[in-house]
Amino acid sequence: MNNSSNTPILQARGIRKSYYKNQIELPVLRGVDVAFARGEMSALVGRSGSGKSTLMHLLATLDQPDEGEVWFDGNRVDNLSRRGRDQYRNREIGIIFQFYHLLPELSALENVLAPAMISRSVLGYFRQRKSLTARAEAMLDRVGLLDRKTHKPCEMSGGEMQRVAIARSLMSEPQLLLADEPTGNLDTETGESILQLLRQLNTEDGLTVVMITHDDAIAERADRCYRMQDGLLVDRFENEPANPASASRGNIATKPLARAVSAA
Amino acid sequence: MYRLLLCFRYLRTRYIALASIISVTLGVATLIVVNSVMAGFSAEMHERLHGLASDILIECHASGGMPDPDAHLAEIHRVVGDDIEGASVSVHVPSMLGIDFNGQLITRHVNLVGIDAETYDTVSHFGRYLIHPENQKQVDFDLREAGFAETRENFPASGWHYRRARVAYERALDEERARVEAMDREVAKLSTTLPQHPNDSSASEDGLIDEDSPESLASAGPSLGPLLPPELNGGDTSGVAATFDPATEQYPGIILGISTCSNKLRDDAGNVRDHYYCRPGDDIRMMFPSASENPKVLNQKFTVVDLYESGMSEYDSTFAFVRLDQLQEFRGMIDPISGVKSVTTIQLKLIEGADLNAVRDALRKRFPPDQFAYSIQTWRDMQGPLLAAVRLETTILNILLFLIIAVAGFGILATFFMIVVEKTRDIGTLKALGASGSGVMSIFLSYGLLLGIVGSGVGLLGGILFVDNINEVAGVIERVTGQEVFDPTVYYFTEIPTILNPFTLAWVMAGAVAIATAASVLPAMRAARMHPVTALRFE
C-alpha cells in the first residue's frame, strides 16, 4: 500500500449513480470527484436528497457506482470481488451510522468485538480471544464506557450507543472512519461530545475522518468541507478552527445554536 | 464466530421461534411413542407367532397324512440338514370339542394336534405357555395333583385334588337324587291313599337307591361319562367303562387352548375376570374324523390335564393338544400290517441365522407340489397378511407423523421470514462490518439447525419419558376420562409393550432436524441476498 502522505487516502473519480423507478432514471450522483487527504477531518454537507449518503455508501463499497472509480490508499476498491470488498469494509475502514446500528442481542463488549469475530473463524477467534478482548476493552475505555461493557444496547442512551459504535469502528485499527450523520440522532450536547471524540481520534491517532451531515454547524467543525447539491459537488472550503466567519455560510436558524455549542 | 454467538443469542431471546418448534417437539415425541409402541406390539406378536409356529411347517393335506415320517425326516436332513436344529412330527386334525357345562353341551371347533412331547418343544415354545409350572419344564399328559397357575388370580382349583372332590360331590348328588326319586315313587304308590303329601317333610332314611341309572346321571351335572356310548370310552382304559373310576383314573390327557374353554368378562367393578367352562381335572370329549378312506366321526373322551395360554387369541382359541401316538391310534393312522405310522405335519426348527426362504425353497424343490400334496411354508408365510398389515400400519403412521413435522416446518419457515424481516437492519449492519452473504446465511441456517436440535431433543426426551411411563400415563387417562385405554379383554398383554429402538430414535431426530433446517433455507437465502444499503435504511 502506498503510504505517502501526498496521495489522498480515499478518492472518488467521476462517480455516477442512478436509481431506477418504473424505468425512469433518477440520477443521484452526476459525476462526483472528491479526494480526502490523509489525517484530515472532512465533512460532506448537503441537504437530504443531495446524494451525500449515496456517496458515502459508494465510498464504503456498500453499493457500486454506475460509472467512476473509488480508490483507497492507492488501490481501486469499487471493482473488487465481493470478498475483497467485505475485507475492505472489515479491516481498512470503520463506519459509524446515524442510528448506531449496534446488534441488540450483544453486549457492548461483544458489539465492539463483532468486526474481529466476523473476520475470524471460530478457532482463530478463540486462539486470539485474550488479545482481542483486551483491545476491545481498550477501545471501550477510549470512548469512556469500559464500566458499561456488559450492558446491552437497550440499556444505554443514544450517546453511549454511538460511543460503542465508534469503539466498534476502531476495533480493526482502520486508517479511515466514515461517519454518516454521527450526531443526527442526538441532542446538541451529546452530539458535541461525539464530535469532540471524533476530533480527538483525528488529532491524537491521526485517523482520517469523513463525516456526512446536513448540519452546517457540524460541518464547520471539520478541517475541510465539501458541499453537495443535486448529485454534484458544488463547493469546497476549509474551516479555520473555531472561525466564526465561516459560520456565515451556514444555516441561519442553526447559527446561534452552533455558536453556543462551540462556546461551550 | 459471530454466527455461532448470534444464533445462540437469537435462540435465547426469540421465544416466538421456540413456539414455532413446539410442533416439531410434539411431532418427534409422537413419532417416538408410536414407533416404540408399534415395535413393542409387533415384537410381542412376532415372538408369540414364532414361538408357536415352528420355523418351517410341512403339511400334508391328505386326511391319512404322509406315511413313514422317519423316512421323510431322513430325506429332509439330507437336503437341508445343515440348517436344521430340531424337528418334530405331529398330526393335525380338525375336530369339535364338547364341554359339558352345567348340563349343557358347549361345542367349539378346534384344531386337534397330536404332538410328540419329546421333540415338540425343540421346534416351538409350546411348553412355555402351559399353565402348570411342572408342565412348562416337561409336558406330561397325566393329570397332576394340584398347583396349577398358583400365581393367577381367580384360577379355580384344578388337578387330581379337584377331580376327586368333584367326583365325590357328584356321587353324593347322584345318591341324593336317586333317593329323592325313590321317595317320589314311594309317594306315587301311596298317593291313592294319601293325596296330599309334601316331599320335603317326609324325608326318611328308608328310600331305595337306584344305582347309576344313565338318565339320572345325564341330568346330574358335569360328569360326562354316561353321555358317551360305552364303546368309545377310554383310550388306555379301553372297554372298561363299567369299571372306570373317575376318582382314581383319567382318560387320555388333553391340553386345551385357554380360550376354547374360558371367557374373559368384565364384572360390575370393571375388573376383567376369566370364567372357565372346564379346568384341568374335568373330562371333555372330542369328535374328529378317522383317517380311513371312508372317514367316520370318532367320539373320544379326554381328561383336561393342562391349559395353554400364549396370548395369541388365534392359537388359544383353536388348538388342543394330545399325545401323538394316542391320536394316531384313534384315527387309525398306524398300518396294522407294517406298523408304519403316518403324520400330517412335520415342523422344523432352523439354526440361528439360517435363511428361512432358502430352506423352504430347497424343500419345495425336493417335494414339488405337483407330486406331493404338501404345503411347505415358513412361519412368516403363514402369518404374512398379519405381519404385512402391521408393517403397513407402521409405515403409514410414520409418513403421517412426518407430514405433521413437515407442517411444523412451514411454521418455522413463516417464523423465520418474520425474524429475517425483523433483523433486516442487523443484517445490514453485519454486512457493513464486512460479513459475507454466506456468513449471514449460515447464521440463519445454524439457527434453524439449533432450533431443530432443541425442538427434537425436547421431543426425544418427552417421548422417551412417555414411553417409559406409558402404563402410568394410560392409568391417568383412564382415571380422567373413565375410558379404558388399554383393554386387556382385547389384548392379551396386561401392559402396553414398548421397545425403544436407538436406530428409530436416531432417524426420527435426524429427520426432524433436517426438516427444521430445510425450512430455514429460504429465509436464510433471503437474508444473504439482502442489499446492505437497503437493509441499513430499513425502518
TrEMBL record, chain A:
Enzyme class name: hydrolase
Sorted UniProt keywords: ATP-binding, Hydrolase, Lipoprotein, Nucleotide-binding, Transport
One GO MF term attached to the UniProt entry: ATP binding
The species this protein was found in: Aporhodopirellula rubra
EC number: 3.6.3.-
Protein's UniProt name: Lipoprotein-releasing system ATP-binding protein
Entry GO CC: membrane protein complex; plasma membrane
Sequence similarity: Belongs to the ABC transporter superfamily. Macrolide exporter (TC 3.A.1.122) family.
InterPro entries xrefs: AAA+_ATPase (IPR003593), ABC_transporter-like_ATP-bd (IPR003439), ABC_transporter-like_CS (IPR017871), ABC_transpr_LolD-like (IPR015854), MacB-like_ATP-bd (IPR017911), P-loop_NTPase (IPR027417)
TrEMBL record, chain B:
Keywords from the UniProt entry: Cell membrane, Lipoprotein, Membrane, Transmembrane, Transmembrane helix
Membrane topology: Multi-pass membrane protein
Coiled coil: none
Entry's Gene Ontology BP terms: lipoprotein localization to outer membrane
Keyword Flavoprotein tagged: no
InterPro entries: ABC3_permease_C, Lipoprotein-release_system
GO CC annotations, alphabetized: plasma membrane protein complex
Subcellular location: Cell membrane
Domain ABC3 transporter permease C-terminal: 398-532
Name of the protein in its database record: Lipoprotein-releasing system permease protein
Species in which this protein is naturally found: Aporhodopirellula rubra
Lineage: Bacteria, Pseudomonadati, Planctomycetota, Planctomycetia, Pirellulales
